[in-house]
Amino acid sequence: MLTDATRYGTLTWVPYRRRTDLLAAPVLACLEALDPDVSKYVYVTEIDPELADTAAMTEAYELPLEASSNCVLVAGRREGQERVAACVVRATTRTDVNTTVRKLLDVRKASFWPTERAVEASGMEYGGITPVGVPSDWRLLLDSRVRSGPSIVGSGVRRSKLLMPGEVLQALPGAEVVDGLARPTG
């Protein structure tokens, strides 16, 4: 990637340090804690918050769907303790909650967190939840499909998105690459 502004789709992306106003507090804190040789590959762009959902965003801004990576929060209980995972999968796939995530969390039943709970616990807005800056006591599970190539993820707020190579996702604190975390859609 370039070290200055770049075009991807119809959007202009800039190094995140140039527009920290477009990042939720936990996202900025995480990026600032990363090795600068890694974080220099993270770009941000402003979008219409009404277009924050993946399908609307990719269509409106002429972005490839396969470059978008969704972060969903999944939890289950074991011995009275809640176990939480932030799962990152390509937008062309679906998180395998009932088998893979359930086994990784070692719980009987795993479920997506309700929106209100996800927003409160992550410190991020709905439609902007991202693996960047999730709490350290959560597991951060990356489907093997996101470990390379560009990934468009949330910025913690609905009005912007982050663009980074999969290698940066792997460098996030606690990131675990999992084969079979997601299944293709359709």
UniProtKB/TrEMBL annotation:
UniProt domain YbaK/aminoacyl-tRNA synthetase-associated: residue ranges: 49-170
Taxonomy, superkingdom: Bacteria
CDD domains: PA2301
Transmembrane segments: none
Cleaved signal peptide residues: none
Pfam families per the UniProt record, alphabetical: tRNA_edit
This protein's name: YbaK/EbsC family protein
Organism in which the protein naturally occurs: Georgenia alba
